[in-house]
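For reference, the entry.
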Amino acid sequence: MLSVAKVQRRNAWRYYVRGVAFGDGRRPVGTAMKAAQQQAGLPPGRWRGRGLAALGLTEGAEVTERQMELVFGQGRHPDADLIERGLLDDGVDPATARLATVLGQPIEEIEARKQTPLLALDFTFRPQASLIVLWALGDDHTRQVIERAHERAITTVLRWLEDEVAETRWSSGRRRAKTPALVVATWRHLDNRDGFPLLHDHCLVLNRAQRLDDGGEPAWGALDTRRLYQHVVAAGTLYTLTMTTEVCEDLALATAPREVTPGLRPVMEIAGVDPELIAWSSTRRQQIEDALEGITDDYVKDHGRLPGERGRHGLGWWAAQNTRRSKKHPKPLEQLRAWWRASAILAFGREMVNGLLERCRTAGAAIRARVSPMVDTVLAAVDVAAITFTVRRTFARRHVLAEARRHLLETLRGRAVPTVPHEHAGSPGLDDYIADNALDRHCRQLTVPQEGRRIPALDQLTYTADFAWPHRWWIAGAEGNPPRESSRYERARVASLALQNAIHDARTTPAARVDDHDQAAAAAHAVDHADQDTALTPVQRAAAAHAHQQAAMPEEYVQGRTTDPATWMRTPENLDRLAAFTREATARRSDIEERELPASAADPGPHREEHELQHRHPGDGPTPGART
């Protein structure tokens, strides 16, 4: 999970060196940052990012208090004192010497225009609640596996941001350039303000990056922070997918859905972690929910209606701020883990705590036995396109990519995609492949390039789809709650499963099978396990992939309220229309391919390449010329 906050005020660096760098506690007055960290047993901050080389820093080096003041407080080089002193010794005037250490536009110039300079963005990464429980109550090996996966997932996201997202801008945003090098300072936190476990890292991304100017010389400029904000959800899903997969593979675990808020997207948690333990660790959530109830009542009294989706987010933020406790005195991890374990044993008993990992492995073995690392990319593209369209109506590629990563997380249930063959090691990840298929096959571009204006980048294009818009329905109340209207996500799930069933029916209907070549065209593009039986016919492989897809889907999606057949009967014509459309498209594609059959039949290479194209890791970089 990923959240972002702005770092704007020039004295904000003091908050980080006095609080964030001290475990979100209150550093004693007069005590140096490094000394305070050592006394409290806290890890120091570390530098990350490819942009460190331009500043003379190295990956993993400690972050000092003076460096924080210079870089994030004044927008200057971390060795500005040494550089300025050398220039002064050479006879340079003080103003020129200081200006030589500034990274990009001086902050004073921005403030002179009555603007507030944006110094950095605080990216905060944290795992799901079940992983935090395992990290807090598990043995040392479990803790180390989770911490290692956490660090690698953060590295994967930062590399993806550098390769695919980060840009620097100048000339009031009229000119832009790719920026594959960020400067990041990271701080590790172990608990929340109540003292309960909450593993998370603060990654301070400097709003400065280096580019080459018109003369080929390196120059510092501001990042396009709007692009970074736009890709936060896609980055968060990449972090969750990467970390969850590594932990599940290393510890032989699996994931299961947990509904946090009725009607909203469930969280894929580690199967076997008791809900009581998750509630025990999530003290802040209960405090926020209690405060949110009163704030919502006040909103209804003032406005005469319930808040919308954006209003609920705003009220939730206020509830979080109102219940935020004062800073505490931080403690070392060994002491915290002993206290957490004692607290959990007193609340739930020694047997529940000691058997936590074994219960997770037992539950994981049952899931892994019926869910193989195979993804039907045809159904995945339909699922991703239908959900994105129903939730957003108009969208960009980043929204589809984020949904593709969620689909992989929900479908693979913690299983990893097979290893990439050596010859395809630089190919796009499976998430990119599904997203591109969803856009190419099921979406329609809305953005029209205008003559005389800059051609928009691929990730700036806007899309929509021509799926039927699902009707709304009401869901009966439970546990004393009143009836509520179906959410956009619930309607999206119904639309997606209806489309998948229509395609599955079209695959298995005799009228849709023109010949064996047509069957091959309609077969599932699957990521098959190494020992997958290759003797199956294309239609059998499609049916097997569909059965796997349904088995991997969370049970409430398949049998619960969101896929109730009574709901589907509201628009029965949609299924027939989509099935007919799929059969017509399959037949048309078959006719086109038959014309080229003599030339392609003698060369099986492209078919092998198409199959191997699926064996990719999510988040891998694209090949040259591939769509990004």
Remarks:
- The CA atoms of residues 341 and 495 lie 45 Å apart.
- Residues 140-165 form the longest helix (26 residues).
